[in-house]
Amino acid sequence: MLDSSSSEDTGGESDLEPQRKPDASSSAEKRETGPPGSQQLRSATPGSLAGKSTKVNSATDEEQEKRKRESIQKEEEERKIKLQIYVFVLRCIAYPFNAKQPTDMSRRQQKVNKQQLQAVKERFLAFLNGETQIVADEAFCNAVRSYYEGFLKSERISRMVQSGGCSANDFREVFKKNIERRVRSLPEIDGLSKETVLSSWIAKYDAIYRGDEDLWRQPQRAHLSAVSELILSKEQLYEMFQQILNIRKFEHQLLYNACQLDSMDEQAAQIRRELDGRLQLAKKIAKERKYPKFVSADMEALYVEELRSSVNLLMANLESLPVSKGGPDFKQKLKRSTIVIMEVQGLKSVAPDRMVYCTMEVEGEEKLQTDQVEASRPQWGTQGDFTTTHPLPSVKVKLFLESTGVLALDDKELGKVILNPTTNGPKHIEFHRMIVPKNSQDTELKIKLAVRMDKPPNMKHSGYLYAMGQRVWKRWKKRYFVLVQVSQYTFAMCSYREKKAEPQELMQLEGYTVDCCEPRPGLQGGRVFFNVLKEGDLVMFACDDEQERVLWVQAMYRATGQSYKPILHPKNKTPNCRGGNQKLTSPISLDPSQRQAVEKLISASPCQFDHAALFTILQKHTLQHRMNDSFSCLGWFSPGQVFVLDEYCARYGVRGCHRHLSYLKELMDYSENNALVDPMLLHYSYAFCASHVHGNRPDGIGTVTMEEKVQFEAIRSRLIALLENQITHFRYCFPFGRPDGALKATLSLQERVLMKDITTPVPPEDMKKLVQRCLEQAAQINYSQLIEYAKIKVEHQVPPEKRLEDMMRLGELCIEVLQQNEEHHSEAFSCWPELMAEHAEKFLSLYRADMEAALQVQSIDSWNSFPLFQLFNNFLRTDPRLCNGMFHKHLQDLYIPLVVRYIDLMELAIAQSIHRSFQKETWQPVNNGSATSEDLFWKLNTLQMFVMDLHWPEPEFAKHLEQRLKLMASDMMEACVKRTKSAFDAKMQKVCKSTDSLLPLSVCTMFNVLIDAKNQCSKLCVLDSEQEIDGQWQQYHSKIDVLIDEALKDIITSLVSKFAAVLNGVLSKLSRYDEGTFFSSVLSFTKPRMDLADTYTSFVRRNQDILHRGVSVELYIKTVFDQWYTDSMRAICVWLTDRLDLQLHMYQLKTLINIVKKTYHDFRLQGVQDSTLNIKSYETIYNRLTMEEATMAVKAGDGLRGISTRDSDVEDD
């Protein structure tokens, strides 16, 4: 039912107020009666406790009953207002003539709700746990893990989802932005472009996001999305606003039928009446001077002109709508005239086997013919279609008999029928008596047919009427009239004669008023009368049927556009008294009170309502419906909603400024309740209101009411505070830069709102100060939120290690916040980059206080805080705006004493370690040296790498640290070399000079220590090539190099000297066989063996093997072998030179040949070059031994026993 008691909307809205005074007392007043027995309760015995309790209870019950009645009454009033608004909305949807559904609006995405967010988290977690079959590399997995930890698990995203402003597209764009940064940092791969990698990663992301959703669900959701976001049909718009205004379905059906929304003529007439009412209202305002209060008194005349101009514009829009193809000549181009011939009865004069047929024609059109059939069964069912311009055409149907004679020219006509159909004539099939020729036997010949005429769009009604007027139709006569619509505002009453396309007489209905009247005496013809009246003219009409009069009066009432509604005789009223094609019975029966409620709603004049207040209610509920639907609208209406609201404002004269002011209020309410609203939408509405209030509208100067100005100023103040709050909470209002560009638009809107008028820009310094103030507050808010998120408690009871661990975790979060600000929000603040740097410094200064407190409680000998410095320094030194900033410099000042103290302690510890280790050194080989050298070099390298990893940002101190470490390494290395050299000398003194002696392995270890020292020197003792090297440092470094080189040279020399001493011992033994000595003659009688040569050769080979196994660098082994070989050859050469005048003994010759040959061969196998092997000393020795061999061969024959110098360069078997 249409009363409030039947509504489901019982939760009252407090914004609805009655817009018209009630015609009678409210139903609540009628129901205002006390509860039964209340008088008896009040008359109880006074003073008794029971009486007092009863009185209190009675008063309480009355108060509750009163509040209940007020609540019911308020709900009833709100319900009536909603129904009245819905009537206006129905008319806007049914016959729009100002607005169209926009097709250029951005397509809105589906919202992501809490359940969907949780499902997405579970899908990405399943992928990270390897529970999906999506194949991905490590880089993609790292990107997904970062996305999951930093974005999906973020509390800010949960808030954004809760606010209804997050869509799947936002999730995808954030992931895309993250991977673009990651992919750019990857190295180039031949044959694989980075665009291909991005496309592949996005495809895998989509697969993870979709999960195991059924594929058939996707098209269904897409289809519903398209229906909701694109162009809606009238039925869909009706349904939408039923939900918006909480209108029940049967209430919609009642109002739809009562408003005749299916009749375009009625809707156009309603619009004309509304526009006429608005013009009358403008005249009344101008006459009575009841103007709104304007900011200037000069606007009163302009206000009336605005009202008239708006109505004229609507009239022009209505007039521009096409009516039909009819023109000013009033010709009626009928769409179609249809003739259907079924059968003929009463045909008796024709033989049954003869063939008959029918023809049909409309005056002036082509003749059509049916098929030929036997006279025994004259049935056809043939249809013929014609078009005509005659309102009263003449239709002829004839029956013919086919002539069988050879000389017959024409077929015989058996009968005919002539009809004059009209658009209101019967449509069913019926029999018509045919006119037969004279002397025909078929006197009862009848034909069964139907003639239907379609009514053209511009023919609103037609029929026979009696008429008489003063200027036209001056004789009371029955004529055929047609009500023709020439345009939306031009109607004409035309009378036609039969078979004529042009009207005989016509009268335009502009300015006339139609109404029923009593029969006029003296006029013959017509039973019921009505007339049209105009100043100086009266035309009387009459017809024979009351229903026909109702139809004519209703059609002319629509055509005249009069505000006065004709009164029909009560006993002849139909339930739908204004309808063109009434339904005499309604599927929903209405009692008198319900019928009265419906009539009151639809007959209410729109000019009597405050449409500004009604539109505010409509827009509020529409926005509420939009914000609660499944789309992430950000405050934007759907195309269908925009269309209806635009049409309502234009049709009912809602001022644009009021519309946008109320829109701004609602949007700001949502924003203040943490809902996401697009700042571009706020900017658009505010700019419209500002240009209106400041008198700088694009369409010229308009009127501005005081109410609009006051509301605008209030909204401006409120909007400034709202935007300032959003800028301050930018990380939470626009998380991860979503919605895209929203923060930048907010700053632009803030600058626009700060303008005092439309032309004077805001001074840049004022805007900068505001942003600076907001960012200062944002730093404090962000840090406090971060502390709360990290759940860090700064208490004295917390152990120092735990506090330092908390500071590390908090520092990582701080850096993540700053990186996110740079990535997602820096573009919005690009006009003030220094303010973002100040914001970061302020943010870090808050962290600095907690960091200093945590560092102060650390032990003086604890070095666990250095990772904290590295964490921040690695971040700050890469940021050009924060590098060497306030926090960075303070961090350096805080850690300089720690670094210096650490290096001092490390230097002392290393020096002590060298002293103690060398005292206990066993010189067992360890890696490239000994245990002491390896430990020393590792400590020096680790210390330098530690300082290098600090990446100290201040160049001077960084240079100082490096130089100090290099000097320290040089000093430590010098001590190591000297200790090693002393140990080597002491060890070599203990080595004997016999051929049985072997080189100790510890000697090789010492040799390796010096070699490793030389290698480490270039890394530990040389400054970075990019730094300037002064002469003093270069001299000091050269000293270290010289020291190491001299030590190596001394070691090699010492080794070679030791080997040469063994060879000298062998040669001294051979000297006993010199010719002419006493021992020579004695030893000649013995038969010495080759043991001396063999023992020396074995000595050489074993020591060569020891050097090969013990010395780590081949270059130094080769150097030792070269010098060893060279000195050996020189020693033999000198020994032979001293015996140049003596002939060698057989034993000497054989021993020397063996030694020289094997020495040559062994050193050649060790890699000694030929240039070194074939030195001059060797050639001298070779020649001498060859000569001695020849001499010995002459004297002793085969005394050498196969020993010869000839194969000295060939390996012995």
Automatic annotation (TrEMBL):
<dbReference type="InterPro" id="IPR033227">
    <property type="entry name" value="CAPS"/>
</dbReference>
<dbReference type="GO" id="GO:0030659">
    <property type="term" value="C:cytoplasmic vesicle membrane"/>
</dbReference>
<keyword id="KW-0653">Protein transport</keyword>
<dbReference type="GO" id="GO:0016079">
    <property type="term" value="P:synaptic vesicle exocytosis"/>
</dbReference>
<keyword id="KW-0472">Membrane</keyword>
<dbReference type="GO" id="GO:0098793">
    <property type="term" value="C:presynapse"/>
</dbReference>
<feature type="domain" description="PH">
    <location>
        <begin position="458"/>
        <end position="561"/>
    </location>
</feature>
<keyword id="KW-0106">Calcium</keyword>
<dbReference type="GO" id="GO:0015031">
    <property type="term" value="P:protein transport"/>
</dbReference>
<keyword id="KW-0479">Metal-binding</keyword>
<dbReference type="GO" id="GO:0045921">
    <property type="term" value="P:positive regulation of exocytosis"/>
</dbReference>
<feature type="compositionally biased region" description="Basic and acidic residues">
    <location>
        <begin position="64"/>
        <end position="75"/>
    </location>
</feature>
<protein>
    <submittedName>
        <fullName>Calcium-dependent secretion activator 2 isoform X2</fullName>
    </submittedName>
</protein>
<feature type="region of interest" description="Disordered">
    <location>
        <begin position="1"/>
        <end position="75"/>
    </location>
</feature>
<dbReference type="InterPro" id="IPR057457">
    <property type="entry name" value="CAPS_C2"/>
</dbReference>
<dbReference type="InterPro" id="IPR011993">
    <property type="entry name" value="PH-like_dom_sf"/>
</dbReference>
<keyword id="KW-0813">Transport</keyword>
<dbReference type="GO" id="GO:0046872">
    <property type="term" value="F:metal ion binding"/>
</dbReference>
<keyword id="KW-0968">Cytoplasmic vesicle</keyword>
<keyword id="KW-0446">Lipid-binding</keyword>
<dbReference type="InterPro" id="IPR014770">
    <property type="entry name" value="Munc13_1"/>
</dbReference>
<dbReference type="InterPro" id="IPR010439">
    <property type="entry name" value="MUN_dom"/>
</dbReference>
<dbReference type="GO" id="GO:0098978">
    <property type="term" value="C:glutamatergic synapse"/>
</dbReference>
<dbReference type="InterPro" id="IPR001849">
    <property type="entry name" value="PH_domain"/>
</dbReference>
<keyword id="KW-0268">Exocytosis</keyword>
<dbReference type="Pfam" id="PF25341">
    <property type="entry name" value="C2_CAPS"/>
</dbReference>
<feature type="compositionally biased region" description="Basic and acidic residues">
    <location>
        <begin position="17"/>
        <end position="33"/>
    </location>
</feature>
<dbReference type="Pfam" id="PF00169">
    <property type="entry name" value="PH"/>
</dbReference>
<feature type="domain" description="MHD1">
    <location>
        <begin position="849"/>
        <end position="980"/>
    </location>
</feature>
<keyword id="KW-0770">Synapse</keyword>
<feature type="compositionally biased region" description="Polar residues">
    <location>
        <begin position="36"/>
        <end position="46"/>
    </location>
</feature>
<dbReference type="GO" id="GO:1990504">
    <property type="term" value="P:dense core granule exocytosis"/>
</dbReference>
<dbReference type="Pfam" id="PF06292">
    <property type="entry name" value="MUN"/>
</dbReference>
<dbReference type="GO" id="GO:0008289">
    <property type="term" value="F:lipid binding"/>
</dbReference>
